[in-house]
Design goal:
Number of strands of chain A: 18
Oligomer: heterodimer
Strand content of chain B: 15-25%
Number of helices of chain B: 6
Radius of gyration of chain B: 19 Å
Distance between the termini of chain B: 36 Å
Radius of gyration of chain A: 20 Å
Mean pLDDT of chain A: 88
Strand content of chain A: 25-35%
Helix content of chain A: 25-40%
Distance between the termini of chain A: 47 Å
Shape of chain A: globular
Shape of chain B: globular
Amino acid sequence: MAAERTTGTVPGQRRDQLERVREAYEEAVARAGVVERRFLIAGHLVAIQFAGSALVPYLTPAFSHLERDDAGWPDLVIRVFDSSSTGVQLPLTGEEIAALSEAGMPGRSAVDGVAGGYQRPDSGLSLMEIGASDALYWAESPMRIPYWERGGPFRGILSWYLGTVGTRFVHAAGIALEGRGILIAAPGGSGKSTTALTCMASGWDYAGDDYIAVTGRTRRVHSLYRSAKLEPWNVHRVPWIEGTAVNESRLMSEKAVYLPSPCNGGKVITDFEYAGVVIPRIGKACRIEPTTKAEALRAIAPSTILQLGSTDTTIMAQLAQIVRDVPAYRLELGEDMSELPMLLASLVRI
Amino acid sequence: MGGETRYRINAPEVVAETLDGEALIVHLGTGADYSIRGSGEAVWALLLLGANGEEVCRSVALLYETNPDAIRDDVGRFVAEVVEEGLVVAAELTPPAIESDFLLEARGQWEAPKLEKFTDMEDLLALDPVHDVDEAAGWPNVKAEAARS
């Protein structure tokens, strides 16, 4: 049985923490200046304002397909700083950080209307007033940002923000053919990335292999990160991508991380209409069969809610809306994946 | 089962949704998730409407065209189980108006309600974020020594 988790935060304290971290960010900006990059994420203009440039190459490549040179007023501003390059320390006590730590996840508890999470080990701190249009992110040092954070930055903040605008940050992969596609939902290790990358090699467009944003009301999948991750021992299943990982020299201790682009044969799409939910698992031969929408919800809901952080009680209803109006399928993945792209194409072609 | 006790979902720790006759429940505090189908889904739905144990038995007996006495033990065990798992908590509620549409909905044959529990994610939430997470591989990878304990 898991230990009961508590926020360890008294009323008023979280808002005070937010203000202290905001002041620290402003001090960091005064010392290092601001570098701003803009991205259109799930149809929302997001400005990321870095104190100095140290974190930019670590936290923006995953969004590069969404970058926009748009001078309009941003829907969300994420203010980012690190201590090592700016010299500004995180103004929280060890006790406060411990209370914000939630098993390495972005953190789901909103206290005083402020969501917060400190990810261990050393991914960083995220704080955001729910419903507000700005958020704060701190990291100790660019060098200590782990590969999974570089591949999917600001998960907590984007999850909190999108949840307030009718779109859900979902633990699933997304791929499409000619603008119509599928969600691929399953626990880690079930074949989401393998399926997505195998199909991309056969001309499918790629929207993400682990986290995507979904608007159930309009049946649209929005790409968040163009990164893709594979366990090193699974790379042989996707031979076209072997040897192209951005962290090729560290595969003894890290998952292989790829940044699909036209340069390496990948095509990343920003959004598409989804026509079904596919639930993969490793098996003996590639085959597909219909299943229930309840099974599709079970494939999406627990890992999304528990990993990405829920700050409201309507999340299950919103996730149910994503699967309610489309068919669901079980997909068994075999060693021979050559027929997989064709098999899945039959689900999206009208 | 206290026959007069009414219950509400244990929000915000517990979230639930019913889709195509199957209730899916996630307990954010423990990381466990649950599925309830068939007869159990009807009992779950009545509990969330605010029915007490006796009202659940009477309504379910109507739904499945059986005698309340024949299902009382099954219902009692199921209610005790969802209470034990922390999915519902006792609440001061007024007797619900159970919609006639609900009672007229076609149902199959009565079977003892079953709560299916899945703990795939529970183990991850049990990790100590400082000591048990593998620092090289990151969450949700577990240090070898933590995995063995």
